[in-house]
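Fold it.
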Amino acid sequence: MGRTVRDGLRLTAEQQQFVELAREFAAGEIRPRARAVDEADTESPLDVWDKASGLGLTSFMIGEKFGGGGVTDLLTQVLVQQELCHGDIGIGNLITSNGFFSAPVEHLGTPEQQDRFLSPLGTDRPPLTAVAVTEPGSGSDAASIRTSARRDGDSYVLNGQKTWISNAPYASQFVIFATVDPAKRSRGVTAFVVPRDTPGLRVGPPFQKMGQRAIVNAEVFLDDVRVPVENRLGDEGQGFAGLMRTFDASRILIGAATTGLARAALDFATDYARERVQFGVPIIQHQAVAFRLADMATRVDMSHLLTVRAATLYDEGHAVAQESAMAKLVGSENAMWCTHAAVQTLGGYGYSREYPVERWMRDAKLEEIEEGTSDIQRLIISRGLGAR
């Protein structure tokens, strides 16, 4: 298990049970498969997904009335996410990816829509799902999306192109964000649930990526895709607000995922430093190495505590745009720093694919980019301080 953070949390028996389940699954099922999944490059480990589904790890965040585990508090989700990603961040993020789909359905959907779209996710063999926001010309500026949604009787007709869509090659359903009027920017953004087999929807070939290869990304093309009005989530123009609320939670979960990754790097580097002997002593006894490990440990704690604070405030109903941005910013940059430090501690071995730290450094880079780059997180934080 390695080092844990003493954060003063008093977990309930149920919370502790979920955390221990995730920890055991990460050690027994995720970590042993991680290298092979990375080398496969463009194939998600569906065998691991199936095993996780059987234990309820893919649906623990879905409400009980939909067949899920009913763990709706974000704090517990954060603690579980951290343990799964301690095993491997790509596979850990895959296992919980249906939570990203369920969030806008919960925030914007009617009770009937929630039952219709979320109940399949609580089954023993749930499908994979996807959320499509990013476009070739619209990344950090989500209000500038160009995918159009034109009302035509009791349907909408969607046209456009999405890119970097996680799970796209496997997803059975998509939440697709489109605009009913580009001139309105954020006030025109609207969300739709679109089944994969809808005529006109096409998924491109998988992208080859630097890291986190357990989640496969691809483009999604929409050519006169007809979506019934009953698949629209919320009213026209409500999609952007629902997306931002989704990001408030998902950025906190990224803070948790990156904390798990940073902790894995710390554990591995510490164990190596205790065993590796140079100049007659284990290298952990050399101050340069010991201080590097001390900095890693401090950064892991910093990431964990910021994430726990943000999740607690979210659960209490506070607006947390600033806190979630801080959790993602610090978590992702600390993960990048800690994985680099782990490679440095292992020296030449750290550069070898025989050891996991080079893979972890590649995996970490994504989290400084997705769901808002580090620059965007700083922008959000600064606006909370009054900057414009």
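The chain has three domains: 13-122, 129-237, 240-384.
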